[in-house]
Amino acid sequence: MGNTSGHDADAITIRQALEDDVQQIGKLWVQLVAYHRERDTRLPMAAEDGELLYAARIRDRLDDSHTRTYVAVTKDGEVVGFTLGLILDLVPEMFAPEISGFLADIYVLPAYRGRGTGRKLVEALMAWFKSRGVTHLELYVATKNAEGRAFWAKMGGHDIMQRVRVEV
Prior knowledge:
Elements: E1 13-16, H1 22-39, H2 50-61, E2 67-73, E3 79-89, E4 99-108, H3 117-131, E5 137-139, H4 146-154
Parallel strand pairs: 4-5
Antiparallel strand pairs: 1-2, 2-3, 3-4
């Protein structure tokens, strides 16, 4: 019974990211990229200064009305997960406009997975989308990311299109 890893999921707080969080988010993003690369080396590598560039991107979007970043924070203030979402029109102008939520990134440290942290991050983002009149969100999940695909299936996600790569 109980939490054998020493991490109490109930002690995790989900809140909107602050400027003080952006460096930790940048570090988590590097781990996200490495996680994807471990599963498929065809996925892009982080640039040498990717951590700093990503942190700057998050910082620049903290006050953007069409972007929201949430963090999962321990009682000690450690950021152990994050998600980045955007409101945008995902279809070209020759289609009827369709404002969508786009989940650009999500990552939770391994020690905090399987305890509802990712679900809480997504639920916070979905509540924000809903408050803005968005009725659905879309995202990319790597084909070889079985853990991620299972997570999204549990969240009610379903495939609507497959992105294909052909080497030339």
